Amino acid sequence: MKAWRFYGFNDLRMDETASPVCKPHHVVVKVQCVQPSVTEAQLARGIKTLAYERIKKRLETEAPVQLFGHEFCAEIVEAGDGVSKFQVGDRVAARAKLPCQDCSLCLSGRSTLCRKGPVIGFDLPGCFSDFALLPEIALVKVDDRISHSEAACLQSLSDSVAAVETADIQVGDTVAIFGQGSMGFECMQVARNCGAGKIITVDVRDEACQKSRELGADTSINANQDDPVASIRDLTDGIGADVVFECAGGSPLQGLSGVKTLTQAIDAVRSGGKVIGVSWFGEPFPVDIDLLRERSLRYLFPDISTSAHLEYTVRLVASGRVQLKPMITHVLPGIESVPQAFEITANKGKYKAISPAQVML
Ligand SMILES: [Zn+2]
What SS3 state is found at 228? Predict the structure, then answer.
């Protein structure tokens, strides 16, 4: 089969490799649609973010190596012994971070807290290839009402569902979301489904603000034109938002905000309110803990998404309660397009992309 393999950072080559051999509790899938996540597009270029050291070590010791590709839609072509939930011909998507199923946390029903399990695309080969071997526990069956393109976004949506659940939104809460990339859009739409009252979004791109209003934001602020903190305070009688999702932070090398939007999120939330940290920053930075303490702020990080979250994403999209199509701006033909998808995803601002660029196989 054809598979893209990394020989180092910035060195991606399409090779002819052996197709994966099925094993118990796993399936072999034929990939239909795959997209790099924003994190993967950064890691491919050696930009520091989540799992940078882990990927660097794999490149130094194992290259050439198949990396990334956990956001996909694929069809099962072979099911291993012990697979009970899926059949050949089923279309599936996956969650990325898997429990080890063996530690005391996993065995006591707290597998979302396990950090010993593998991550698809980081520890296991993902789907930048014709075929892939995947563990059954990662998968969800895709409803017929969901397209290949939409299904490739379900992994990201399941993380956004977990983030919104972590926020524990109360009915009528004012929710602000910094960043209207894929996870910002997803958090906004899931928050609407979970009882959010007033929804305020922030981005620096007019097209993202426009799309955000179309998808349900009551107000969308272009932070290049208006001060988002002052605007959010104006819209909340000076109090601040009950919940703020920070989805814009990260490396400025890729058009992200650095830590600026985290500072703004802290300034825009009300006393006792919650800031949900969705972004990865790639480096440490100083935080005024006394400020958080004085205002009784909660700075929370999302739980890892579970099978239940992933199955909920299927219902959300199949029923139309969350729209993914308007966020899919770039769809490329054929496995040869993978490097172009990484380029677009790494520079979404330049290409006016909202979600990562997709490749149809
Ligand atoms: Zn475990």
Answer: helix
* pLDDT tens per residue across span 307-355: 999 999 999 999 999 999 999 999 999 999 999 999 999 998 889 898 9
Assign a CATH topology to domain 160-300: Rossmann fold (3.40.50)
The residues spanned by each domain of the chain are 2-153+328-360, 160-300
How many angstroms is it from 100 CA to the middle of ligand 1? 4
pTM as predicted: 0.95
Distance 132 CA to ligand 1 centre (A): 24
How many A from CA of 138 to the centre of ligand 1? 14
CB 72 within 8 A of CB 127: yes
The highest-level CATH class for domain 2-153+328-360 is: alpha beta
Q: If you measure from the C-alpha of residue 99 to the centroid of ligand 1, how many angstroms do you get, rounded to a whole number?
A: 5
Distance from residue 21's CA to the centre of ligand 1 (Å): 25
The edge-to-edge listing of strands for the beta sheet with 199-203 is: 219-222, 199-203, 175-178, 241-246, 269-277, 298-300
What is the whole-number distance in angstroms between the Cα of residue 101 and the centre of ligand 1? Answer: 5
